[in-house]
Amino acid sequence: MADHYEVLGVARDATPDEIKKAYRRLARELHPDVNPGEDASERFKLVTHAYDVLSDPDQRARYDLGGSDSPFGGAQGGFGGFGDIFETFFGSAGGQRAGRPRSRRERGQDALVRVTLDLKDVVFGVHRDLEVDTAVLCDTCQGSCCQPGTSPVTCDICHGSGHVQRTVRSLLGNVVTSQPCGSCQGYGTTIPYPCATCQGQGRVRARRTVSIDIPAGVETGLRLQLPGSGEVGPAGGPNGDLYLEVTVSPHEEFSRDGDDLLATLEVSMPDAILGATTTIESLDGPVDLELRPGVQGGDVLTIKGRGITPLRGTQRGDLRVGVHVVTPTRLDAKERALIEEFAKRTKAPAPRLAEFHQGLFAKLRDRFRNG
Ligand SMILES: [Zn+2]
Ligand SMILES: [Zn+2]
Prior knowledge:
This protein is of the alpha+beta class. It is built from 9 helices and 15 strands. Helix 2 (16-30) packs antiparallel against helix 3 (38-54).
């Protein structure tokens, strides 16, 4: 453990004033707000602790007598004072005594943006420019929170440590507790001339456009994470993340089943009987479809590779079209006679039970009914 006098660079008989001056000089050099390096931070802790000890006549006297006062607490710290005992037994307050001051820089918050896509966007993926209301770095101060040309000054009250100690009388004697410095809110520095643009926050609210390529295959409820696209943190801290929550609006004709697209094809009774060729409009253009003569209601025609590209993968699913044979409901006398004639000739069987159709047909039929 370094000697406190050496740490502060003062003689063993330095006056309180010399000690204070030495500390302020070092704090200005090492304070995390001006010197973010890890080494500086460690030294700042040592310097602050040395000053804590040497600026208190009682602690300094004990230190001069050889009392140990490890700032890193615990049993080996010996009887550095009742405060240490109190902290050892009750935890809490002491942990902060040698801690570093709070940093003004903090990570920005994550943001959530909702985006509504249609099914076509899901099939092919889509590019979107999203307007996001967020916090961005203040141009004027670049996150320093200070008017240009000025800088934070070491807090007079806590001398840069961000903490103040209070002696409280208790059953155990005088107990030293540490709490965040009210004058600087624990930052260890104050800002005499806050940036006028951002009121000393280091960031301002702004509308920002975020360009994003939404991949194919997303679905309702999915959240895409865009690291670092959330708001900038206080005092220019790192950006939070932006989350994009996807909603896919229902399509009139197509619904999704995994990577496949489903639709229903309404086929007239004569076309079902005689067969037909037709062209359907899929999400990526026209597709020719051949209906064999005698196609049945519930038959499923599969059009390979016209489904959805999965989120992870390149192989598109299929488009599956379920046939729905539309029975004529209004016949004139002539049509009715023709159908009766047809029935007589074919000796059409009476209605009879068969196995219930499960799976896709049921799904398609439900869809047809609901929608
Ligand atoms: Zn500013
Ligand atoms: Zn302070």
